[in-house]
Write a structure and sequence with these properties.
The protein is of the alpha/beta class. It has twelve helices and eight strands. It has helices at about 20-30, 45-55, 65-70, 80-95, 110-120, 150-155, 170-200, 205-215, 220-225, 230-245, 250-265, 280-290; strands at about 15, 35-40, 60, 70-75, 100-105, 125-130, 140-145, 160-165.
Length: about 290
């Protein structure tokens, strides 16, 4: 069910672990809704600091302060860093005695989500996932929450995003993400391969015209995907593991992981997501997918 966007209690403070492109967007959404949002910038890049500042997110000195201050914590890191982030929070909780509830929003399999929950204990864990771009880039991202305290996160005053409480079964939000991302990001990888092959065979314009006519214009998605390809490699492996866990062949998404690993080495991958032009021709995308 979709939770009402109630006004959160004034005592709530949201701590953000990972204020990059997506994380800062979620922080912006809550801050716009009237929440106090904080993040620890120690060890983070200058770009992360700029994104957090632009989103109006309040910096704190370190994770210990974040845990002592926040009532609710959102973790938005690359999938491959989910366990390490949980370990950092668990260590800080031991040092400080703080007990905020933590929602892991990363693109991870249900099995990895279970490992995160175990690592975080005794902190309460909410399984979360995100479908769509950051709310400050385009309105309409769907935010999924599952677990016994999922409703607390769904009821936060999200702006330009749709919170959905999947109920009390932790792992459901991660399972959902593994299925939706398999389609969205799988199609992007397929399109990237298709236009590169078409260019090599000298039929790029005709192929793109055919795909455009069928509603498959993924040029911008490929350009955006390339800037995040290094994050998508572990995500594809998480999808492969999730599919293997229910008896499906994992080879397809292991191959997609290889495709994104290749994309991560191209000039197109050197851009930041926020710098990608809204319009790029297929020829421009293909040219920047060639290795230097």
């Amino acid at each position: 069910m979709t939770a009402p966007q109630n006004e959160a209690p004034s005592t709530f403070v949201v701590g953000l672990v990972g204020a990059g492109f997506m994380g800062s967007g979620l922080g912006w959404s809550l801050r716009t809704g009237g929440m106090r949002v904080i993040t620890a910038l120690d060890g983070r890049s200058g770009r992360t600091a700029r994104l957090a500042a632009a989103a109006g997110i309040e910096p704190v000195d370190n994770t210990d302060i974040l845990l002592r201050t926040a009532t609710h914590v959102l973790v938005v890191t690359p999938p491959g860093a989910a366990i390490a982030a949980a370990e950092t929070l668990a260590d800080a909780a031991k040092r400080t005695g703080a007990r905020p509830v933590v929602a892991d929003m990363n693109a991870i399999s249900p099995t990895t989500a279970e490992m995160v929950a175990t690592t975080l204990a005794p902190l309460d864990f909410v399984d979360g996932s995100i479908s769509g771009p950051p709310p400050n880039v385009r309105a309409g991202a769907r935010l999924y929450f599952a677990g016994s305290r999922a409703g607390e996160f769904a009821a936060l005053p999200w702006q330009h995003a749709i919170p959905i409480d999947l109920g009390g079964r932790a792992g459901a939000a991660s399972a959902l993400k593994m299925s939706t991302a398999s389609v969205y990001k799988g199609l992007v990888a397929l399109y990237a391969q298709a236009i590169q092959a078409a260019d090599a065979y000298g039929v790029l314009d005709a192929v793109v015209a055919d795909l455009d006519d069928a509603g498959y214009d993924l040029r911008h998605a490929v350009a955006m995907g390339a800037t995040k390809a290094h994050r998508y490699v572990p995500e594809m492996l998480e999808i492969a593991a999730a599919q293997a866990g229910v008896g499906l062949n994992p080879d397809l998404f292991a191959a997609f992981a290889d495709i994104y690993a290749e994309m991560a080495t191209t000039p197109l991958a050197s851009d930041d997501p926020e710098s990608v032009p809204d319009v790029m021709t297929a020829a421009e995308v293909v040219a920047r997918l060639r290795k230097s």
